[in-house]
Amino acid sequence: MITTEKEWNRAFEYIVPTVSLGVAILSVVLGVRALSRISYTRAGPLGRRIYYRDGQYLVPVRYPFQWHDIREFVQPDNPDVLAVFSQVGADPWALYDFVCHNIDYRNDVGEFWFTPSETLRGHGDCEDSANLLTSLIRAGGMPAYTVLGNYQGYGHAWCEHNGQLMETTFTSARSAPDPENYCPYVLFSDQEVVELWPGALGDIFNLRRDEAIKLNLMARV
Question: Which of 75, 117, 183, 210 is deepest in the core (most CB within 10 A)?
């Protein structure tokens, strides 16, 4: 089930007073410091809300009323991830090639992030394949991040390993021919979130999307 923008916006109108009231109560009970630990941002249509609390970067990118720390989508200990890792091996480039060959790009209706297990069914959006590759590389104890940023001015996601840009919508592993067009905003793994400037995670959900650009990336051999 994928929630439509109209359904999500209607649900969001219900959740805003609840969250706002909760913050107001906390500010009275705990004092001004509560506001420094809890912040809430609404920034546009479906899937574009960010909720920061006690070190968590929460986003509603599955169902209404479900908030997920973005780190939850990188799962190096996931049994399905470990099974692929044991089959393919610890070479990051081989893992990259596995994702490119086995995960077909399909755009979301609105915004719906898959878990690595769901992506391994054979398809996903750019953040789904990037999260899968990050999970696979991290399964070997190697550094890797999912990067949220813009590509040619539109919202996009890819994987980064030791400074190497890995475009997971390609149909085979290769270096991106135009790395200058990739502008990172946020890097995250299962352990940390790195905003390249304050509020960058909120900014990324404000970017427009262009599925034609992503489909063109996927078609590159």
Answer: 75
Residue 81: C-alpha distances to residues 66, 70, 114, 135, 174 (Å): 24, 18, 13, 7, 22
Structure tokens at 57: 């970067």
Please state the domain count of the chain.
Answer: 2
pTM: 0.77
- Alpha-carbon gap, residue 98 to 84, rounded angstroms: 9
Enclosing domain of residue 122: 75-219
CA distance 39 to 128: 26
Give me the residue label for tokens 């404000």.
Answer: 206
Instruction: Clarify whether residues 170 and 118 are in a common domain.
Output: yes
Last residue of a domain, one of 41, 71, 101: 71
